[in-house]
Amino acid sequence: MLTRLAAGGSAAYRAFRAEPRLPADYARLYLTRLYRKAPLGRSPLLELRRVRHPVPWDQGPGLIARAAGPWSDGPSVELARAATARASRDGDRSRAQRIARELAGDASLGELIYALVRATRPDAVIETGIATGVTSAFALAALEDNAHGALHSVDLPPGALVAGGLVGSGIPPTLRHRWRPRWGDARRLVPHVLEQTGGRRVFVHDSDHGYQAMRGELECAWRAFGSGDWIVADDVDLHDAFIDVASAHGAIPHLVAQKDKRSCTGLMRRG
Ligand SMILES: C[S@@+](CC[C@H](N)C(=O)[O-])C[C@H]1O[C@@H](n2cnc3c(N)ncnc32)[C@H](O)[C@@H]1O
């Protein structure tokens, strides 16, 4: 417990030094009351849902092969699977662990991201929303199996996860050398990260699931991306943000149900 607190404290200290605007990001989110609701996908900005008929989760990898190209499992995916399974077996001994479990991404979302990154071999994956790092671990496993590329992750993590040393704790240590985390509000940092990366890219939204935040991130990625780049979003069944971005740009929205959550992943390709 004490070791975890110390690890959390020193991680927080490093993050505040690296990102001087972090305190302002936390203050703004607390003040707008989005902070406690948005990570759970219950933003007050929800709008009417139009997402219908996703394909079942076990057809997701086949959908990726048809839409993005052939791919196969490499050795690193087992590391991500084992870390995710271990985390879901861990008991909820503390409040931080309960929050971590609530925030954790569905393993089937991780598998989809693995398949997409293997099939498209991007130079960079950009994701928002780390928590304990389910999607991060699968994206990093795919980059490792491609022997190419880096993962740029953005998060404004809950204080309880920071204090408990749980942020990114599910990412296997041997995959971390391709990981470039940034701490702060995604609305502020995503444009910078998109500016700093190039080549073939994949964007993954899994942070504030309010309509405005999701739509803002997806539009930002769409504008920065080139033909052949892919955009993925978790929980697109909460409202119409994903469908609205796809129809505004004439993209085909692919929708895949998740295995353990009653949620839906959206994928679209630019170009
Ligand atoms: C659903 S969790 C992410 C789950 C993670 N992708 C996984 O697979 O385990 C959402 C995360 O987004 C973060 N978040 C929420 N609003 C944010 C914002 N405006 N900017 C950056 N991160 C945010 C939360 O702190 C939380 O860590």
What do these coordinates show?
- There is one protein chain.
- The chain has a 7-stranded mixed sheet with strand order 3-2-1-4-5-7-6, with helices on both faces.
- Residues 35-48 have low confidence and may be disordered.
- It contains 12 helices and 7 strands.
- The chain has one domain: Rossmann fold (3-Layer(aba) Sandwich), CATH 3.40.50.
- α10 (186-196) packs parallel to α11 (211-224).
- It is 47% helix and 13% strand.
- The termini are far apart.
- It has 271 residues and is of the alpha/beta class.
- Bound molecules: S-adenosylmethionine (SAM).
- S-adenosylmethionine (SAM) binds at residues 38-39, 103-105, 128-135, 154-158, 185-186, 206-208.
Task: Summarize the entry for a quick read.
Helices cover 47% and strands 13% of the residues. It is built from twelve helices and seven strands. It is globular, with a radius of gyration of 17 Å.
Topology of this structure?
Elements: H1 2-18, H2 22-31, H3 34-37, H4 60-68, H5 77-89, H6 95-103, H7 107-120, E1 124-128, H8 134-146, E2 150-155, H9 159-163, E3 179-183, H10 186-196, E4 201-205, H11 211-224, E5 230-233, H12 241-249, E6 254-257, E7 264-269
Parallel strand pairs: 1-2, 1-4, 2-3, 4-5
Antiparallel strand pairs: 5-7, 6-7
Helix pairs in contact: 4-7, 5-8, 7-8, 10-11, 11-12
The protein binds S-adenosylmethionine.
